[in-house]
Amino acid sequence: MRRTNEEGSFISRLVKNLGLNMMWSVPGWLFLLMHFMGEWPLGLSITSFGLWILAVMVDMKGFSFEGFRIVRKDPEKENKNPYSKSGYEHEDNDLSGK
Fold first, then answer.
1. What does the pLDDT read at residue 32?
2. Three-class SS string for the chain?
3. Average pLDDT over the chain, rounded to whole?
4. Rounded distance, CA 25 to CA 34, Å?
5. Burial class of 54 by CB neighbour count within 10 A (0 to 12, 13 to 18, 19+)
6. Rounded CA gap, 5 and 63, in Å?
7. Is 11 exposed, middle or buried (0-12, 13-18, 19+ CB in 10 A)?
8. What is the mean pLDDT of residues 1-9?
């Protein structure tokens, strides 16, 4: 599902995301067309549009809460790189000149 990463109010982001996910509204438009051409109930179209908007809203909220999840940090590891200053501390190789 496409989404925007822009800041702004919830309504403005919802409108932008609904525009990006317009293809999800096709069943609602088809049910609306069948309502006017045949004797199909209007509730199918309204339900379809409602589910489309609800799916976009859940998707928006789901991605916004991903930033708040707890991330487990890796424990500190010993630096074994011989070319790194912090990993290569010997008294005979003191280059500071003291």
1. 92
2. CCCCCCCCCHHHHHHHHHHHCHHHHHHHHHHHHHHHHCCCCHHHHHHHHHHHHHHHHHHHHHHHHHHHCCCCCCCCCCCCCCCCCCCCCCHHHCCCCC
3. 77
4. 15
5. exposed
6. 10
7. exposed
8. 63
